[in-house]
Design brief:
It is found in: Cell outer membrane. With 562 residues, the protein is mostly beta strands. It contains two helices and 28 strands. It has a 22-stranded antiparallel β-barrel.
């Protein structure tokens, strides 16, 4: 690169020198004679350096002066532009939001089905449609099995009922009532079926006729500071053995709000029972329960007393009773978590009307007494988790006087007497419940009730199992198929059998595990088919000594809504 630069510099110098001399000669003599080149010597210094003076640098930035602000008046022009009128008649459609239609109600339905054990299943429900003035309806039921688990027709059962109900809604007042009749037929089939002589089922039949009437009124929707519900109830029962019982009961529930955080509640009950079989007995009960409640932020306190009087004479029943009641509730998470504890007591009305619904194989001429819960110490909790899971738990220690038990009669082991513990019966109770609900499609639940009985004079808590539990689930598949299932568990219990020769035997009942299933398939809003399977495991278990239950029981049928 340096050699090329040197050669180029030399060529430029030669050309410049030649041009200069040529111009000088032309100006003096021209190209004529005598115009000759003179000898000259050209010296080229190839090592010469061309040096330029150093330039000074300016480090200052160019400053551009901003324009001077001046008044700027902007003029806006508003022009009213109008479209030319059109002679075409345009059809305009206004779009509106469609009103939600109310789901059509079918206030009536009929169900009919058939099953094994010669079972006939009939149900009907009739009710008025939507109304803000009144609500009224009726339901009928007839379920019968011509054969049973022992000696076919000798263990047949029939349950029939018809009920009427109605309510009238007025300004701040609701008046209602119920009227019902039921007929239940059973047989005392708890004998040994291996006999030489057949048993005539008419001689072992039992029939209960039940009538119940109720009237009530309340102002719970009035918004008044004093709220009440007052009612009267009449229950009547008779059976095939000329037993009659009438219970006339009055009930009042009232509360008065003193202010936003405190109030007074008063509950009162009066029951008059007239019982007649081989003897005539009158039994009265009166209770009044005043209490004061106060809310202190998340804490709610209730203090009161339960005062009760009974006319019972069985087992030297205590006539007059006073039970102090205290309850403290803490709600650390409003509407989602409640923790409570308290003490109390109560006198509980017991009638043959309810006892025969629990055990229809009672012997004639039994004596009934009210249960006296002298002391109860309890604590528990209620919780809601994410509005889907609901939990309930309760633990209590209780003592009772005149708690009833069922034991086989000494004169006839197919029937049951009411026996009472001579003294105080202590009970340790634990109750737990968990329910999962998801958008009315899936519902799963678990319930468990454990009772540990400590009797004073009885050798066992006859026919009172310690543990009863159930697991249930429902599934609604697109409002087309509905599944229901329930699994029962009932622990074993005891009963003492007295033989004709004077000997006796303590027998233990079965531990019960029972699975029931039900499925409904909806063809339309009106027609539905159903299938029910009871005791799917097929165990002929005994809830009461000598009384086995049915094995698998299937019922299928249809229902019609209108």
């Amino acid at each position: 690169m340096k050699n090329k630069f040197k050669k180029a510099s030399l060529a430029i110098v030669l050309c410049v020198g030649y041009s200069f001399m040529n111009n000088a000669a032309a100006q003096t003599t021209g190209w004529g004679e005598g115009a000759k080149l003179q000898d000259a010597e050209v010296v080229v210094e190839k090592d010469r350096k061309i040096e330029l003076p150093r330039a000074s640098r300016n480090y200052q930035k160019f400053a551009v002066a901003p324009p001077e602000p001046g008044d700027r008046n902007v003029r806006y022009r508003f022009s009213d532009y109008r479209l030319a009128d059109q002679s075409v008649d345009l059809q305009m459609k206004v779009l509106t939001i469609k009103q939600d239609e109310l789901t059509k109600l079918y206030g009536n339905y009929l169900k009919a089905g058939l099953g094994n054990y010669a079972t006939l299943y009939l149900k009907g429900y009739f009710h008025n449609k939507r109304s803000n003035v009144a609500s009224y309806g009726a339901d009928v039921s007839h379920i019968t099995s011509a054969r049973g688990p022992v000696d076919k027709g000798n263990s047949a059962v029939t349950n029939s009922a018809i009920n009427l109900n109605g309510e009238a809604y007025m300004q701040g007042l609701t008046i209602g009532g119920k009227l019902g009749y039921g007929r239940d037929k059973y047989h005392f089939y708890g004998y040994n079926p291996v006999r030489e002589l057949p048993v005539d089922k008419d001689t072992i039949s039992q029939v209960f006729n039940r009538v119940n009437a109720e009237g009530y009124m309340h102002n719970h929707t009035s918004g008044a500071p004093f709220l009440y519900k007052a009612g009267m109830n009449v229950n009547y029962l008779n059976d095939r053995y000329d037993m009659r019982e009438t219970n006339i009961a009055f009930k009042l529930n009232s509360e008065y709000g003193i202010d936003d955080v405190s109030g007074i509640k008063v509950d009162a009950d009066l029951s008059l029972v007239s019982h007649k079989d081989s003897a005539s007995v009158s039994r009265s009960l009166f209770k009044i329960h005043p209490q004061y409640e106060r809310q202190l932020n998340a804490l709610r306190i209730s203090v009161g007393a339960n005062i009760a009087h009974t006319g019972d004479t069985v087992n030297d029943a205590r006539k007059f009773n006073v039970y102090p009641t205290v309850r403290v509730g803490l709600e650390p998470i409003k509407d989602n978590l409640l923790i409570y504890a308290g003490i109390g007591g109560d006198l509980q009305r017991v009638t043959l009307y309810t006892l025969t619904e629990e055990n229809p194989f009672l012997a004639p001429n039994v004596r009934v007494a009210d249960q006296n819960k002298g002391l109860e110490v309890y604590g528990g909790m209620q919780a809601n988790i994410a509005n889907y899971v609901h939990l309930t738990g309760r633990v209590a220690y209780q003592n009772f006087r005149n708690m009833y038990f069922y034991n086989n009669s000494a004169s006839d082991s197919t029937k049951f007497d009411l026996v009472y513990d001579d003294g105080v019966t202590n009970v340790f109770n634990v109750y737990a419940e968990a329910v999962f609900n998801y958008s009315d499609e899936v519902r799963i639940g678990l319930k468990a009730d454990y009772n540990k009985y400590s009797t004073a004079s009885l050798e066992q808590a006859f026919h009172r199992p310690e543990l009863m539990a159930s697991v249930f689930a429902t599934y609604n598949f697109y409002d087309k198929i509905l599944f229901n299932s329930e699994l029962y568990y009932i622990g074993s219990s005891f009963g003492r059998i007295n033989r004709p020769d004077g000997t006796s035997e303590l027998k233990e009942t079965d531990t019960i595990m029972d699975l029931n299933l039900k499925a409904d398939y909806r063809f339309s809003n009106r027609f539905t088919t159903f299938l029910m399977v009871n005791n799917l495991f097929g165990q002929k278990y005994e809830r009461f000594v000598n009384y086995p239950n049915k094995s698998i029981n299937l019922i299928g049928g249809v229902s019609y809504s209108f």
